[in-house]
Amino acid sequence: MAAVAARTRAAVRGIGRTPPPPGPFRPGFWRSPIRGPWLTSVFGLVLLIGIPLLFITGLLSYASYNPGLSPLNDETPDKGVLGFYLFSWPTHPYWLYRLLQGVHVTLGVVLVPVVLAKLWSVIPKLFEWPPVRSAAHALERLSLLMLVGGVVFEFVTGILNVQLYYVFPGSFYRLHFYGAWVFIAAFVVHVCLRLGRMGRALRSRGLRAELRTGLAGTVPEPPDPDGLVAAAPAPPTMSRRGAVGMVGAGSLLLLVVTAGQSVGGRLRGTALLAPHNRDPLSGPNGFQVNKTAAAVGVTPALVGPDWRLEVHGSGAPLVFTREQLLSMPQHTAALPIACVEGWSTDDQHWSGLRLADLAALGGLPDAGSVLVESIQPPGPFTRVMLRGNQIRDPRALLALRVNGSALSLDHGYPARVIVPANPGVNNTKWVHRLTFRA
Ligand SMILES: Nc1nc2c(c(=O)[nH]1)N[C@H]1C(S)=C(S)[C@@H](COP(=O)(O)O)O[C@H]1N2
Ligand SMILES: [Mo]
């Protein structure tokens, strides 16, 4: 053991004595005169607020699936203690999930320029020479690798998913969820190590003064122990004000071309970068569709006159035709569809049967859960478990109609579930069986 350690130390010393190879490892290679602790800290401060917000909205978003209720709802079944915070997802306020997921996705997109700028500002650190000086230094570099790898991984997987590139090996949710925990661990370590330095760097130059300084007044910061400031700076081609402004403008532009998909209404058309940026049809069913019936193999024959709704509860199963369901007392609720991918619709006016009434018909008025099954051929999103509080909310419906007309085939005809504050994916379409459990 001791011999190995001694040999490693000797090898490290050996590398330390060799001059850096040509290229980015040489001190004179990085020449931007505005790179330095102040600029890094400005971007760092934005991320210090933004990243925890992304993390918290992400964790809440996962909780909204009610993964603790049933393995059916659970996209990360091996999470173990990482699910410590899970709780029963509420149905109030009804727009909770719409807001939460809109913030998560929009904020993620808007922070991209800040993340890139932050990485640019510390890039000389990636090329330190010697690469490893000591065990502590190796540990620090490993944590930075987790930090940079983590941030890139989370942003890339998230953006691929909201852009509907489903190229993941396995489930996106698993990758994004576990990635988030690895990243946040490295983030917390990094913040603990650098917070003091960040505060000092921010105090070293006034923001107001910096925003008044143009190109002519732009001089490098004094040399810093981290080696961010260039050893041989080039003449400035951009002021710090310009750099901060460029990143801010980039974020603002991304906000403008993304947010419309979550805000909806007339703003939807401004979401140039979002896949759900125009309303597909006009008329009562003219709002966003996630998967069309054709795309998932729901044929008109499956939902034709032979379609029946089965309600299972305490006694023998009940079976209803759509006409029978329509002849029962109908209730209405104005609720949005809000997808995990960040897009959502304005409130739509659904009408149909209360889940609570169906539970009572099945002999279980106090049902603790209901298994909702679609007639869609087996695949993702065909089954979900909902909780007692979701059944009992008077706005939770098995909807038969929307905005005054029958549901269209793409929106789940003959019947679909719609529950306040429920993630879109749990509002199952083409329902044919409800199984209430005590
Ligand atoms: N049976 C079934 N239900 C489903 C889906 C599906 O693929 N199959 N997609 C879900 C998802 S991910 C969303 S966002 C909503 C979208 O509903 P909409 O297409 O009516 O807007 O339906 C949900 N219900
Ligand atoms: Mo969705």
UniProtKB/TrEMBL annotation:
InterPro entries: OxRdtase_Mopterin-bd_dom, OxRdtase_Mopterin-bd_sf. Keywords: Membrane, Transmembrane, Transmembrane helix. The chain crosses the membrane at residues 38-63, 95-121, 142-166, 178-196. It holds the Pfam family Oxidored_molyb. Residues 304-437 form the Oxidoreductase molybdopterin-binding domain. It comes from the Bacteria. Gene3D superfamilies: Oxidoreductase, molybdopterin-binding domain (3.90.420.10). PANTHER family: BLL0505 PROTEIN, PROTEIN-METHIONINE-SULFOXIDE REDUCTASE. This is Molybdopterin-dependent oxidoreductase.
